[in-house]
Write a structure and sequence with these properties.
The complex is a heterodimer of chains A (231) and B (213). By secondary structure, chain A is an all-alpha fold. Chain A contains ten helices and no strands. Chain A has a single domain, classed as MetI-like fold (Orthogonal Bundle). The longest helix of chain A has 34 residues. Chain B has one domain: MetI-like fold. The longest helix of chain B has 37 residues. The chains are: A mainly alpha (231), B mainly alpha (213).
Chain lengths: 231, 213
């Protein structure tokens, strides 16, 4: 009966299943919205870092360095514990959205930057010669080609985002990890709680990891010329 | 603002930084060893070794670090700091294993064949021909993983381990004004930033060096 994985404890877990379901839904919705923010920020700053303007480059560099070189938890604590001191109290979901989006956006920016840099310069020049502006060339000519190079590492960033969303547990974010921890600290049935949580996170992340590997192979096997003509 | 940089507070934070670095260094060393073993196993032709390593890597790569940190508190009774190091090591090893495997696979098969043809044994080929080249290829990814480890140690505060982030948060509890709190956030960020920025700069100069050779 006192075994950490005894049948009784598993039964309790299934009876309280809806708590875990709520956590899973929160984790999913925070992850998806934060991913969209990260994509937006990452694309903007990634393009900035490949532009000719020194000012835009410096802004992008500062964002990436500042965010990537400080822990996510400190950033989350800043939103959660710091901002209330100047009268700004954000709901935890918004903290998850902003905190994770801004943090992971710095990684997306690096991915986008190396994707754009992998496209031969002649593509941009050819677009200019056809009368495209810089932004038109970027969105119609460069980014569609860079997509195949950007996608595999981007998928890995998404996996990291889902895993990192678990830090919300530390600020009572109502996510999967939080519910698992609070449920099991109430009844001490941590064995089943953590196993179930691990399985759920695995189910979210593993398909994406597989997808990243598939995309990587596709992008490796497709010769560059074919890749260009397909878009 | 004056009151946060008292000698007592500085010493309190520096002790936390000491623990952060201690945990990070031990984690890096241990996960390098475990990661290399896992990578060699995953590349091995012996099916069972390959299978074990694949399951391990996929399990840890697809679950959050925080879960392992919290679980290890209960699973093993080796003290808070040690169980934190264990969780960090198990998790990081799976990522290092993939980096090392990528490095090993980046070496052309001809290098192996040439070495075998010269009478090198399997271990000798790895040690003298493959690893020196592979290590050079994977150095940038490894160093950026080390930066991640230093950042990840902050999660240990969730298990009550008083590393730098934890100490900072304890200190924050005694502050009342927004000046003090923001000052503390800047100070904490600056400490992490300085260490990681130096490491990141090394990574970039390395990448540049490799790109040119």
């Amino acid at each position: 009966m006192n075994h950490p994985f005894s049948l009784l404890k598993w039964k309790a877990l299934f009876l309280d299943w809806s708590i875990f379901k709520d956590g899973l839904l929160t984790t999913l919705s925070v992850s998806i919205t934060a991913l969209l923010l990260a994509l937006l920020l990452g694309t903007i700053f990634g393009i900035f870092s490949t532009s000719k303007s020194r000012f835009l480059k410096t802004i992008s560099r500062s964002y990436v360095e500042l965010i990537q070189n400080t822990p996510l938890l400190i950033q989350i604590f800043f939103w959660y514990n710091g901002l209330p001191y100047i009268g700004i109290v954000l709901p935890v979901f918004l903290i998850g959205f902003l905190g994770l989006g801004i943090y992971q956006g710095a990684y997306v920016a690096e991915v986008v930057k190396s994707g754009i840099n992998s496209i031969p310069k002649g593509q941009m020049e050819a677009a200019y010669s056809q009368g495209f502006t810089y932004w038109e060339a970027m969105f119609y000519i460069i980014l569609p080609q860079a997509k195949m190079i950007i996608l595999p590492p981007l998928t890995n960033v998404s996996v990291n985002l889902i895993k990192n969303s678990s830090v919300l547990a530390i600020i009572a974010g109502g996510d999967l990890m939080y519910h698992a921890d609070s449920w099991s600290s109430g009844n001490l049935y941590w064995g089943p709680a953590y196993v179930a949580t691990g399985v759920l996170y695995f189910c979210l992340c593993y398909p994406l990891t597989r997808l990243a590997k598939r995309l990587e192979q596709v992008s490796k096997e497709t010769p560059k010329v074919a890749r260009v003509s397909r878009v | 603002m004056r009151s946060i940089l008292t000698p007592v507070n500085i010493k309190f934070l520096l002790n936390g930084l000491g623990l952060t670095l201690y945990i990070a260094v031990i984690t890096i060393v241990l996960s390098l060893v475990l990661g290399i073993v896992l990578a060699v196993m995953r590349n091995s032709s012996i099916k069972i070794l390959n299978r074990i390593s694949t399951i391990y890597i996929e399990l840890f790569r697809n679950t959050p670090l925080l879960l392992w940190i919290l679980a290890m508190r209960f699973l093993v009774r080796i003290g808070a700091v040690n169980s934190g190091i264990l969780a960090l090591t198990l998790f990081t090893a799976s990522i290092i294993a993939e980096i090392v495997r990528g490095g090993l696979n980046s070496i052309k098969i001809g290098q192996y064949e040439a070495a075998y043809s010269q009478g090198f044994s399997e271990v000798q080929v790895l040690a003298h021909i493959i690893l020196p080249q592979a290590i050079r290829n994977m150095m940038p990814s490894l160093l950026s993983q080390f930066v991640t480890v230093i950042k990840d140690t902050s999660f240990l505060w969730a298990a009550g381990i008083e590393e730098l982030t934890g100490r900072g948060m304890i200190l924050m509890g005694s502050f009342a004004t927004s000046d003090q709190v923001f000052m503390l956030f800047i100070l904490l960020s600056l400490i992490y930033f300085t260490i990681n920025f130096i490491l990141s700069t090394i990574i970039r100069s390395q990448q540049f060096k490799f790109a040119t050779t």
